[in-house]
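Question (not urgent): is this output format expected?
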Amino acid sequence: MNSFLVGLQFLTRIHIARQTVWTADAFGRSTRFFPLVGLVLGICYALAAWLLVYFIGMRTLTAVLLLILPLLLTGGLHADGFMDTADGVFSGRERERKLEIMKDSRVGSFGVVSFVLLMFLQFALLLDMHPFLLVPALFIMPIIGRMAMVLAIACFPYARADGMGKTFADMADRKTIVTASVMTVVFVLPCGLLAFVALMLGILFALLFCRAMTTTLGGVTGDVYGAVTVLTETLVLAIFSLASINSDVWGILWR
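Got this back:
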């Protein structure tokens, strides 16, 4: 239970039991509970989506508020990692310089532009999504996103000699992957075939993305953990939004 609370406090602004002293061991054990953290976020997102659609309808305001909510509940942690990754990868510099740029606390032009474009994309995907699919999409989105983070941590080398992200990487093992995978499947599968498709494609994307980052950076970093989470979540939204185009398609996949 303590490991879950450590992960919840680190990845979100939801602090059930405030802890000020974190050990490397507590950090490492918390990784396997990241999909459970995603479940907590998914419940919050899905409930907000249901209330907004019920009281406001599927309008522009609903999509905007649903874009803002994840940033508020996570403190923009993953968005920051995404922007730092974009700054480094798109800089066109050598590997060591890319890692230095990513470590800089200041956000550069590549990061800002990439994040703005990502928000535009997510806004369009939410606005085009059928209201019937909005709640399940937002429920499973953070679960699959945190599973993607677990895969990045456990399956790929860390690019730096030190750093907070390395603490997670050093402690992750096969048990971490198995525990996180079981949780993810249990949480996602009851949501239907479309959710299962999103899970499989999300895992595939996460592995390919982290492999590309390993080729570029010599490994992954804490920023890449955030980037793969945000991008995998966007992919989940894209799958549900594209399925909304044809009611026959999502009607079949929803069963």
